Request: fold
Amino acid sequence: MEASELIAGRTMAGGKAAAAKLAIIERRQSALSLRKSGASYRAIAAHISTRPGNEKYSEGQAHADIAACLKAINEQTSLDTEEYRSLELERLDTAQLAIASKVQSGDLGSIDRWLRISERRSALLGLNEPVRLKIEQGLESELTNFLNSLENVLPTEIYKQVLNAIASLDSRAATAANN
Reply:
């Protein structure tokens, strides 16, 4: 069924407000479709403004319509992801429950399967993320004192190499933390 047919059907069933909402949905879907095919906002506005009731459709409105569609898609995707995660966790619970007695009796295959299920659960819940350590201020001052004492013991060139190596590690850690 075409959107215009839906609008006509809704007009009879739900009045003008429902028809107007459906017209907006149709316009937004059209704008998004045009944008996905590579059309500029100007081209989208030019195309949609030729339709009755959209004569004053602008680039700004095209941008707003596409943004609204993308926001709705993102919200739905987030909901879908959470629903999927919950469903998968329920499935894992069911699988673990099914093999629990064999695990308790020491069946090695079942124990291995239990561990694989646990690994999958950990991944779904984000428990496998790397642990990030922060250097406490007290430890930082101890490291500074240690480096200062090295300056008095090491030849100048080697001391500079140590500082460069530490700076390199520090920049790598900062880059990893930002990713």
Summary: The two ends are 46 Å apart (CA to CA). The chain has three domains: 3-69, 72-125, 137-178. DSSP finds six helices and no strands in the chain. Residues 137-178 form one domain.
